């Protein structure tokens, strides 16, 4: 991209807007006629210089969403993938940034640099801002939206708040599910050390089995509590949270306060699912089809803790706050899969799997804001933060059995490959961040405007490690069943894997790293940035925000095969410098109507997992992802126009148009290595455009109906709709990574032979629709709200390179929820009662591909239940 080569459209837009403003001159006085222009409505959505959408604590309460990912799907132009990641204006999560109080959130996801927002509870947030046009004080990595989450601060008064909740799922609760013991502290979301990788096993990978001895390796693993699956009834979901606010000191000179929140949740889900991972284009009638049915019980445990302690001094001109938070989510799963191996042996198969996954993010932030009245009201805001994220998946186990036609029993067998395994993986992510912003008011054209400038520095590093082990028998029959002891093959798996059997050479354990893609990776990124912008009130009706951001970045990646000498391969660093302009014009023609136009240039860098060619498995979809170290930055030209009409505070109608021209968009595609293996490539270019409409208003019911019973009651109505379209161009070249004798080399070719010209961008839905309709009693605090959320189908990941396998499409379930809250009195105490019914329509999950015949072939589908929840809170 010519960094300033496309500023002409912004200049033309500015001239056009000025011309429109010039025709809207104020009417001259005629006697006693008074003309009022640009009436003030105190609404942050209106007063920001950029196009944005806002949610506050009232929205969180009305919507009944416990995490910010669920809440953000109500915002115009936004949807959520995998229940965690925002998709803004048809651009998936790599094109959006998420910050907490202006600081990037570390990510515990090995598959993405973006932080999963499902682990951020709404309880700790005062609100959120989703800015859809770019301004230079934000990171240059912008395409869809910049999402800033704002935590609660120093309280106005001391308080204690407790909340307890219970939930029933019609597809899960009290039905028969699968379980395994695990460690004694699993219920708290922490492993107590039971699942630690044995040191002997790690040494066997690095130095070979002979260095530790075969029997020592065979008996090193835990073979009881992480292995045996049992049956039982799935319990109800539960949650608990406590918040405490304390005013430590409140004097004429300073004010000190602290707010603390802790929360815990335990949620169960039973999946009765079907998978079809058949390769090629004939997915429905393929004699070598790879399909399976599985039943899985998933237990997700959330633990979070948050504290903000702050001081205000200097008559409120200075504030310093220390914010620390811990966000954890742990997933425990037991799964039994049944299928017929039509691909190879035609055997009836049973796979038993157990897994444990911990995700954790913690960060400490020190923030300050200062107003210097004697320096022409100069404001200085600064923030410094250090955080870490981790992801650990130890003792991810699978065992394999085939059905004996003679005995009718499932017998332990080796299978083809990857059948009897123990897998370990871990990720560590560190993030240091510093930023400072200056705001200087100044007068121009007799009106107050602002000059803002500042800079930031970010240092992010990540390491990953994977350890895989096989169970192999030296003596097996034709079908892979243990021949040394046929009666053993029909035994319980904990007996087969007992130390006595493993020490007898009937079954041996071997390290698998030598047959894998690289099992370790390192990545780092440094970004130094500076910006300046002027927010100028040109006249009573026209406002301009014009600025530029400079970023200098370096991103490095290396991968290692730890079983090989000299097994590390480092790739050329991705180093870039950018000067990125941005301009937004706001015209207030009359009353509370305003029109905005914006143009900007932004970028998106490849995420660490997109660059590192080490395999990781997505636990939700069961697909393997491997990176492409030859990816380059995406460059984006953004155009926006929006008309806004504000009736009152938080009441508005907006209509907006957007267009984005993307060079080198990063897309996830199927490699063809296996039907469930994906990687990434830069398509030559793409475009996305669309329309957004938002409407929100409250209607006092006493204006519609007579009678005292209607006083103080309001009808709340909010809706938004987004239509968008996208096209990926195959006019150019693409580069994918090829493994050549253990080294990864670029494979560059004509895009027309590798991707489908004109297909949709990954993650883009043509239609997004939200509706909220509620009744509120202002006097009693009673609220009843119905919520509808709809997103049309989207590409989950793209077709196989060369078109030998179709794209996987996802149809997000339609969500219809009811949320009720009421203040109640019980035994002379006041409580808050909350009741919600979610997924009333019982919509299921579905991802599918198009068969060669044109019919839809399932890729993954499972039932989702209706959830009934009740909560009780008490404020002291």
Automatic annotation (TrEMBL):
Domain TonB-dependent receptor-like beta-barrel residue range list: 306-775
Domain of life: Bacteria
GO cellular component terms listed in the entry, alphabetical order: cell outer membrane
Compartments where found: Cell outer membrane
Pfam families: Plug, TonB_dep_Rec_b-barrel
InterPro entries given in the database record: Beta-barrel_TonB, Beta-barrel_TonB_sf, Plug_dom, Plug_dom_sf
Membrane-traversing stretches: none
Leader sequence segment: 1-26
Family affiliation: Belongs to the TonB-dependent receptor family.
Full protein name: TonB-dependent receptor
Species this protein is from: Parvularcula marina
């Amino acid at each position: 991209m010519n960094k300033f080569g496309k500023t002409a459209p912004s200049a033309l837009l500015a001239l056009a807007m000025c011309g429109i403003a010039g025709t809207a001159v104020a009417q001259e006085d005629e006697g006693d006629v008074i003309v009022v222009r640009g009436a003030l409505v105190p609404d942050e959505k209106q007063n920001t210089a950029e196009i944005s959408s806002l949610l506050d604590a009232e929205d969180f309460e009305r919507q009944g969403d416990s995490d910010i990912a669920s809440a953000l799907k109500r915002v115009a132009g936004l949807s959520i993938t995998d229940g965690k990641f925002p998709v803004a204006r048809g651009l998936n999560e790599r094109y959006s940034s998420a910050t907490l109080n202006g600081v990037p959130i570390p990510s515990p996801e090995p598959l993405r640099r973006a932080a999963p927002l499902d682990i951020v509870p709404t309880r700790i947030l005062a609100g959120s801002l989703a800015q859809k046009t770019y301004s230079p004080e934000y990171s240059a990595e912008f395409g869809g939206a910049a999402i800033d989450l704002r935590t609660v601060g120093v309280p106005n008064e001391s308080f204690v708040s407790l909340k307890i909740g219970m939930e029933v799922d019609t597809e899960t609760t009290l039905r028969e599910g699968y379980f395994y013991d695990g460690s004694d502290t699993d219920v708290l979301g922490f492993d107590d050390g039971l699942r630690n990788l044995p040191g002997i096993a790690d040494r066997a990978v690095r130095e070979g089995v002979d260095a530790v001895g075969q029997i020592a390796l065979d008996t090193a693993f835990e073979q009881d509590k992480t292995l045996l699956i049992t049956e039982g009834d799935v319990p109800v979901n539960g949650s608990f949270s406590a918040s405490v606010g304390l005013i430590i000191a409140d004097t004429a000179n300073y004010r000190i306060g602290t707010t603390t929140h802790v929360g815990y949740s335990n949620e169960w889900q039973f999946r009765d699912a079907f998978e079809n991972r058949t390769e090629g284009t004939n997915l429905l009638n393929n004699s070598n089809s790879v399909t399976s049915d599985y039943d899985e019980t998933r237990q997700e445990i959330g633990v979070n803790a948050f504290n903000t302690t702050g001081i205000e001094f200097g008559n409120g001109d200075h504030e310093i706050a220390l914010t620390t938070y811990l966000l954890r989510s742990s997933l425990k799963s037991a799964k039994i899969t049944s299928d017929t191996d039509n691909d190879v042996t035609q055997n009836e198969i049973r796979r038993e799997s157990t897994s444990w996954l911990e995700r954790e993010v913690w960060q400490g932030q020190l923030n300050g804001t200062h107003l210097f009245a004697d320096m022409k009201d100069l404001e200085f805001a600064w923030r410094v933060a250090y955080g870490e994220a981790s992801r650990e998946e130890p003792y991810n186990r699978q065992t394999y059995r085939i059905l004996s036609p003679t005995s009718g029993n499932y017998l332990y067998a080796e299978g083809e490959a990857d059948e009897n395994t123990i897998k370990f993986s871990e990720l560590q992510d560190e993030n240091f961040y510093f930023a400072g912003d200056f705001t200087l008011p100044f007068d121009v054209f007799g009106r107050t405007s602002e000059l803002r400038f500042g800079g930031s520095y970010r240092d992010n590093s990540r390491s990953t490690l994977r350890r895989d082990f096989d169970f192999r028998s030296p003596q097996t029959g034709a079908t892979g069943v243990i021949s040394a002891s046929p009666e053993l093959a029909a035994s319980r798996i904990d007996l087969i894997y007992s130390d006595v059997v493993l020490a007898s050479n009937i079954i041996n354990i071997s390290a698998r790293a030598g047959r894998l893609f690289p099992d370790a990776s390192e990545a780092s990124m440094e970004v130094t940035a500076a910006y300046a912008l002027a927010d100028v009130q040109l006249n009573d009706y026209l406002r301009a925000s014009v600025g530029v951001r400079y970023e200098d970045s370096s991103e490095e990646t290396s991968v290692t095969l730890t079983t090989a000498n000299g097994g590390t391969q480092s790739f050329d660093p991705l180093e870039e410098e950018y000067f990125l302009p941005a301009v937004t014009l706001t015209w207030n023609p009359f009353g509370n109507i305003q029109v905005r136009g914006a143009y900007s240039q932004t970028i998106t860098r490849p995420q660490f997992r997109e660059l590192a060619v080490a395999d990781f498995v997505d636990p939700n979809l069961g697909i393997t992802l491997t990176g492409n170290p030859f990816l380059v930055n995406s460059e984006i030209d953004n155009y926006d126009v929006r008309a806004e009409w504000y009736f009152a505070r938080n009441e508005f109608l907006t209509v907006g148009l957007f267009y984005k021209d993307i060079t080198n968009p990063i897309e996830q595609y199927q490699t063809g290595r296996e039907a469930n293996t994906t990687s990434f490539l830069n398509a030559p270019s793409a475009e996305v455009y669309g329309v957004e409409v938002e409407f929100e208003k409250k209607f006092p019911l006493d204006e519609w109906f007579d009678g005292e019973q209607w006083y103080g009651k309001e009808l709340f109505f909010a809706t938004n709709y987004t239509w968008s379209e996208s096209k990926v161009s195959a006019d150019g070249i693409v580069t994918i990574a090829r493994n050549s004798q253990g080294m990864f080399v670029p494979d560059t070719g004509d895009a027309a032979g590798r991707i489908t010209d004109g297909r949709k961008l990954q993650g883009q839905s043509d239609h997004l629709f939200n509706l909220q309709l509620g009744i509120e009693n202002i006097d009693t605090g009673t609220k009843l709200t119905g919520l509808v959320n709809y997103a049309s189908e989207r590409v989950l990941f793209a077709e196989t390179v060369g078109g030998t396998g179709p794209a996987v499409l996802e149809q997000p379930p339609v969500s219809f929820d009811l949320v009720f809250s009421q203040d109640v009195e019980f035994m002379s105490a006041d409580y808050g009662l909350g009741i919600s019914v979610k997924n009333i329509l019982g919509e299921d999950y579905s991802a599918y591909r198009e068969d060669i015949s044109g019919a839809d072939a399932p890729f993954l589908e499972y039932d989702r239940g209706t959830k009934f929840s009740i909560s009780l809170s008490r404020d002291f």
